[in-house]
Task: structure prediction
Amino acid sequence: MMWNKRCLTELAFILMFSIVLAACGADDNNTNASESPENNESQNENTETDENKDVELGKKELTIPYVAWARETVVSYLMGEVLKDIGYNVEVKQVETGPMWASVADGTADFTASAWLPKSQKQYWDQYKNQVEEVNQTLDKAPLALTVPSYMEDIDSVEDLKDNTELGKKLNWKITGIDSGAGIMSLTKKAIDQYGLEQWDLRHSSEAAMITELKSAIENKKPIVVTLWKPHWTFGVMDLKMLNDPKGSYGGNGGHISIVANKNLEDDAPAAYKFINQYTESYEMIEKLMPKVFAEDKDPKKVARQFINDNPELIDEWTKGIQTE
Result:
């Protein structure tokens, strides 16, 4: 009887001790379980916040200088309209090549989408490369060349201009160029030296004036030699051919076109910097936009606005992660 009572007492003590141990183990497990999800959730939230955090506008006033060439005009106005939607006050400003680079370098302008590198505008890159940043290469091929109407069947290469007295007399030995500060003009002067075209005179004007002369020549089926490049809207509406350049005076495919910004833009206007870094461009896109402005004579702002309205998914890609106002 005494033994049974003692056994029961010991058994009860062991049972109680086991329950206490189990409870302590449960508390430890609950503590670990409660800590782990909270920590994981906190880490996930931090990661998500870092990845999806909207970039702020910074300063509100932006200036985009551009040279009055076809692609540069439509692209500059398009980017300007998108930046206005983001919340900036934007001035799209037509200038010549030298002042364009100088203004971006000294901060009176913020960025330009008109940088033809590495060869066409090499002199400006060499001069200002410590004050600017090449942010985004938008088109990887931008050939430049002397160009003629396709009906000039005997002229296929720059070499065909050398000592070509018959053609030279018809044209008064004139090559019709654009603004004097353009890279294609300096490259054409180089080509004149390399190909021995000393009889030929490179005349500077403007892109618009050059195209007017080109149109007139084609309408009357007369010869003409002009400085041209791609992408350009004239190739979509006129039958033209770029002359072969066996000496490589124009640099093969012409290099590429980039957005170049002032060194301080990322700090001064983070959202604008992110936008120009995310901006994408295709030849198909540009070749659709250019004729609307230059062949149909539409307002580039209205053309840009219509493109924005018609391509909301593309605009979303360009402005992803940007805080708008």
